[in-house]
Design goal:
Elements lengths: L27 H10 L5 E10 L3 E8 L5 E9 L3 E8 L19 E2 L2 E3 L5 E5 L5 E6 L4 E6 L2 E6 L6 E2 L5 H10 L9 H6 L4 E4 L2 E4 L7 E8 L3 E4 L18 E3 L21 E6 L2 E7 L5 E8 L11 H5 L5 E8 L4 E6 L4 H12 L5
Antiparallel strand pairs: 1-2, 2-3, 3-4, 3-5, 4-21, 6-7, 7-8, 8-9, 9-10, 10-14, 11-14, 12-13, 14-20, 15-17, 16-19, 17-18, 18-21, 19-20
Length: 357
């Protein structure tokens, strides 16, 4: 007697219809940032504006194109943590800052200004083991541990900050920019979702225009990244391609697809990176919709003719670039410097879990 044929069942038949949710090519702030970054407009730190106090070091940043001034603040926090905040210096109204996540105001350590040339500033913690090297033009921050660069911020020039505006000012600016290289047609304005964004039946009216932010981090010598839950993906985060970023957005999804970067359930903007001898973390404190791009550059073999002082010490090193983009708010990021996995977990708990204090 022949065995009865079994009916084939595929989980794909019950998988979520991805058209119901936005992916990168349907997200306006992603398209805006990609278009703007293609112009290679850079930011410059105004180091003659530096002020220091017991808690932080502050200085201005200005964009070459928009001339809008931002205010950067760097904090040293107990337990080998650095915090970078970037906000408009004089916003039209207060921009949203995430409440209730940090258990209390972090205990800070005074950062000491060390020697630097006219185009840079070096800040060190009291122990001297960790240093921040701030380069003025173009603006970049290198986090250095025992003379080794661990993290570089804005080394790819992907700092992006949309300032709040009044609608009539935008219209006047549009008339004055008719000769600009960027398309300012009504069709393009709508496609970029500057003042109104549509998805299906939903319409998002932006009374003060777009307000998205973005920043890149280069992790030196790191190839293994984890975190930024929650996705039905492999434990180790994969490199992303065009329009293939990890999406952080709280969704209650039934029948989600596996091995997919769309967001499900929780959204925690916390990333871990590990290599032999060091583990670090990046905590991007932002509650709005966020996209994360990851790209690993393979190790480079240096020849003798190419070797400068730095290359001689680090002949073979890979780098992984992490690009964070959020729909609104301010840039508020904590760099957890480890160096061990246990240290990183303690540092994160110190910030977010009062039970660990």
């Amino acid at each position: 007697m022949e065995a009865a044929e079994k009916e084939e069942i595929s989980v794909e038949d019950e998988a979520v219809d991805k058209n119901v949710f936005r992916d990168c090519n349907k997200i306006a702030f992603y398209r805006r940032q990609k278009q703007w970054l293609s112009k290679k407009s850079t930011y410059q730190a105004l180091l003659d504006s530096v002020t220091t106090d017991e808690d932080s070091t502050r200085f201005q940043i200005i964009n070459e194109a928009s001339k809008v001034t931002l205010l950067a603040e760097i904090y040293g926090i107990e337990g080998n943590i650095f915090r970078l905040k970037i906000n408009e210096e004089t916003p039209l109204k207060p921009r949203f800052e995430v409440p209730d996540v940090l258990t209390s105001k972090p205990s800070t350590v005074r950062l000491i200004s060390c020697s630097g040339d006219t185009g840079s500033l070096i800040l060190a913690d009291g122990k001297g083991g960790l240093k921040c090297h701030i380069t003025a033009n173009p603006f970049k921050v290198d986090l250095v541990s025992e003379e080794e660069v661990v993290i570089s911020i804005n080394s790819l020039g992907q700092l992006y900050f949309e300032h709040l505006q009044i609608l009539h000012k935008q219209r006047a600016a549009k008339e004055n920019e008719e000769e600009a290289s960027v398309d300012t047609s009504q069709e393009n304005q709508e496609d970029l979702g500057l003042w109104e964004e549509k998805f299906g039946k939903f319409v998002d009216i932006k009374a003060n225009g777009p307000s998205s932010i973005g920043l890149d981090f280069s992790l030196h010598g790191f190839e293994h990244l984890y975190g930024i839950p929650q996705h039905a993906e492999s434990h180790q985060l994969k490199n992303t391609g065009d329009e293939d970023a990890y999406r952080l957005y709280n969704l209650d999804v039934y029948g989600y697809q596996i091995f997919d970067k769309m967001g499900i359930y929780g959204s925690v903007p916390y990333l871990l990176a590990h290599k032999l001898g060091r583990t670090i973390g990046i905590f991007w404190l932002n509650a709005s919709e966020t996209l994360v791009e990851i790209n690993t550059e393979p190790a480079v073999e240096y020849t003798l003719s190419q070797m400068g002082p730095v290359a001689a010490k680090q002949k073979v090193r890979s780098r992984t670039h992490v690009h964070w983009m959020s729909e609104s708010g301010i840039i508020d990021v904590f760099l957890l410097t480890g160096p061990t996995p246990s240290d990183v977990f303690k540092q994160y708990s110190h910030l977010t879990d009062i039970g660990e204090k």
